Amino acid sequence: MTLAIYAVSYFSAAVYRYNEVLKSFKEKPQLTVFFKDEATEAEILNLKTSLEARLEVKEISYISKEKALELYREQNLDKPELLEFVTADILPASLEISTTQVEFQESIARELSNNNRVESVVFHRDVVKQLVQFSRAARVEGFMWAVSLLTVSVLTILIIVGLSITAYGREIEIMKLVGAGNWYVRWPFIFQGAIYGVASAALAAGLLYLMPYIKDFFLNGTESVLLPGVSVFPVADWLLLRLWGATTILGAGLGALSSLAATWRYLKA
Amino acid sequence: MIRFESVTKVFPGGTKALKEVTLTFKEGEFSFVVGPSGAGKTTLLNLLIRRYVPTEGDVWYQQYHVSRLPGRFIPRLRREIGMIFQDFKLLPQLSVYENVAFSLEAVGRPGQEIKELVPYMLKLVGLEDKMNRFPHQLSSGEAQRVSIARAMVFEPKVLLADEPTGNLDPRGGWEIVELLQQINQWGTTVIMATHDRDIVDSLRHRVVRIEEGVVVEDNAVGSYD
Description:
Chain A: Residues 30-121 form the FtsX extracellular domain. The complex is a heterodimer. In chain A, 68% of the residues lie in helices and 9% in strands.
């Protein structure tokens, strides 16, 4: 059951992480327009002014060749070999445009691509599309994994509690002979199942918390093959606590229900 | 009060434990059920607490059709019809006090009531000084007294005793029978299945004899033979 609850937590955290990244892309839809070398600053600023007047455009900033060099240097401070031959001349000037909605990106990009001063337009259409796919995959695969593992857990608890009931057969028989009601006999087993669920949720939360360290130790930070694109770990403390809470309820409920089923199965007589 | 109407009980495998048994037990009676081993005495008692269901015929307790009683009423029936067994059926991991208390806990009696009732009942059976002992620390006679106390906490109208002296020495056996007589004098109907000739012959109560699942004799004041 620990593994099943771990799978539920892991995929929930993954879906959450994908959605967060997607949200940031959707909230800050951005495209970058790179200009040809022959485009003058005046032409670019003119275009900027005309774009600023449009309702689809939320924010726009001009990155000159010099500013681009400055940014490039900041990003590659630790790689002097990359800085050596790069001058402002070889870096293109650009406009960074935020649109009010992600859907406007494509039309603006198409329009600007036709401008003879524009070298290229880059925006996150493909990234967003891919992240949506990954998120959907995480949801579907996660659900399938969780259902399969939880089914195995439920069957395992059924067997374990069934064995417990068999082991306590004499005690149960005596209780029933002296007039104990079915629920009096049942509830310790239901409690037992619930405890399995609660303990599994705690172990799974611990595993989720420790996983980044375990992964670092064994994989040296290699990216996940299962869920590419974003790293699920480390799971934020608040999310871990919420997952722990939710899986404790889920585990206790499933454990109790499995045990209840076992008592129906074995205490009928 | 108790009626067996043409009751037949056949166990899986074909063993016929009772054949067309028709019997009545009146309120307040003390009756012995005698007969050789395997005659059907225990089956008769177990049909009354719905441990078994008759293959044919009906068992009645007061206005209740025991053999058709819905499952949820069986615990209540077993509190109205108490039963003690040859092997005592005590829970070994519980103390004497706990063995009596758990049956009250099982029906949700308040803790304070349990604290008062259990010592009172153990005093009645003469075990007030052994409340904290465990079953393996008791003699057979004492263990049987615990099981009587456990059955009596619900003040049952009927007490069934299945070979209650079978595992006891003669003195211990007599002590238990005297206790059962006392319980009967308080108004509880007692039906006791036994092999003990001395006890049956000495007390001169009603004797029902069963042989091979058939009632062959029923005397209001009988003896073992």
